[in-house]
Design a protein that fits this description.
This protein is mainly alpha-helical and 98 residues long. Helices cover 71% and strands 0% of the residues.
Length: 98
């Protein structure tokens, strides 16, 4: 039988997975903005519950801000994933695997 009390998270692996997922989402986001900029921003505004069209002006996506955004999202996901795994292991009384 599955016992959740036996689970411990490898912080590095969880952080890499989280960073990778956010980087992939950043690529999808840029693709949507590149294909349908106004519609995508309206949708994001609807999802975030505020008018993004007046808050964030539409900018042209360049190679460098695309790469920069993907890197920033990966790092943010890595940090959040690592902290999540660390806290999970601490709160559950488990130590992380090497």
């Amino acid at each position: 039988m599955f016992n959740a009390g036996n689970i411990k998270l490898n912080e590095k692996a969880f952080a890499l997975a989280s960073g990778t997922v956010l980087a992939i989402l950043a690529v999808i986001c840029v693709a949507l903005i590149g294909l349908w900029p106004a519609s995508t921003m309206r949708f994001y505004g609807w999802a975030a519950h505020f008018d993004m069209m007046s808050f964030v002006p539409l900018r042209q996506v360049t190679f460098f801000n695309f790469i920069g955004g993907v890197v920033v999202m990966f790092v943010a996901g890595y940090v959040v994933g690592w902290v999540f795994a660390l806290l999970y292991n601490r709160f559950s009384g488990k130590e992380a695997t090497a």
